[in-house]
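Protein modeling request. Please complete all fields; requests missing the sequence field cannot be processed.
Requester role: graduate student
Desired output: 3D structure, token encoding
Chains: 1
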Amino acid sequence: MLSTAEIRECLERCEYKPGWTWTLHEDPWEGLFIRFLVEIDDSYGTGTLTLGIDSWLPPQVSEESLRLWMAWRLGRIESHEMREFFKVDGRPVFDPHAVTT
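Delivered output (101 residues):
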């Protein structure tokens, strides 16, 4: 298993799009999580905002597994944003915030 220090060092070498950053945090009860900070345009056209997305990090056996998890998590965040921004007649087609029954 990677130690907290090894995970932190690996994450410090990683980068993504401009406006996307992350930091590793340790909760005394639940373990490690990554806080993604994302500067993004508001899908409702009211300007920009900063999203703070906390994601619990499962144990990682290698830097490769950590990179794979990061790619998966970044893809999930991007998918959520795509569903907010993809619109027809000004309304999201697959609104991730819509209440479904």
